[in-house]
Amino acid sequence: MRVIVVGTRGSTLALTQTRFVVERLKENWPETEFKVKTIKTRGDEGASPKEQNIFVKELEEALLRKEIDIAVHSLKDLPTELPKGLKLASVPKRVDPRDAFLGRTAKRLEDLPPKAVVGTSSVRRKAQLLAYRPDLLVKELRGNVDTRLSALGNGEFDAIILAAAGLIRLELRNRIDQFLDPEVMLPAPGQGALALEVRLGDDLAEELAYSLHDPLSFARVQAERAFLRGLGAGCLAPVGALAQVLEDGTLRLEGVLLSEDGKSYIRAEIEGEPGEAEELGLELAQDVLAQGGRELLGAGPGWGGVKT
Ligand SMILES: NCc1[nH]cc(CCC(=O)O)c1CC(=O)O
């Protein structure tokens, strides 16, 4: 019997997500033996999150070298194009995609005084914050979730913004003061979702991973990622996107492209069937590009990379 090795980064969040995935896999496949293998990535060693791919590349290399059979990623860290020989096997059920506000004294974004210092390292969060509250000061905040929480405790920041999903998975939901309304802060494409990646042709690993697949979560992130890809921007760019399934089953995709200072932005939405998620994302991207997005992208520093 083949032992299936599930690869993960070593951060507390990555390990927690992976343990959760492996528990579900064991439930579905009680006869199969699963092992977790931790892979060090440059992202964990403090490389700038502005570099493309830092959280993902080492895991993909380990897959290709057959050191691991299933890689567990945060979907938003995964570039929109996968390397040759690898395949996205499944997207499990997504948790809350929104961004979370954590304040030192103010408990809501609206309650921060002018010139309050907000920590984030994401240009997407920075641009949307400044679009909504141009009076705030945005300061670089790096590191994993634990590091960011202690930076808030140190008094260096009046507030920080993090993905709600990470805090929820770490059972730190009680630290969240406010879930930011997507009207104000559209999440990163894929935020709150996981991705299970396998080698092309490893049918066993693919079948095991696919048992965790959630088609509606997949349709949503497919639309969001197609929007990003259609912009030709990569996730280093100030781009937000959120797809939701309405009560009648319609997929609604909202997307925004901003300038880094938040002074200009183009926001648009589109509705259609979950089955045409990819087309909807690409169409919305064309719409945003035609409405001035091309000029916005041209003015930026070449948003090639990938991140949040
Ligand atoms: N950029 C790193 C990263 N990748 C995934 C998450 C959170 C969990 C998720 O979105 O699934 C985070 C931390 C954050 O942005 O606050």
UniProtKB/TrEMBL annotation:
Porphobilinogen deaminase C-terminal domain boundaries: 219-289
Positions of modified residues (S-(dipyrrolylmethanemethyl)cysteine): C235
Protein name: Porphobilinogen deaminase
Record's keyword annotation contains Transferase: yes
SUPFAM superfamilies assigned: Periplasmic binding protein-like II, Porphobilinogen deaminase (hydroxymethylbilane synthase), C-terminal domain
Other noteworthy facts: The porphobilinogen subunits are added to the dipyrromethane group.
Quaternary structure, from the entry: Monomer.
Any one cellular-component term (Gene Ontology): cytoplasm
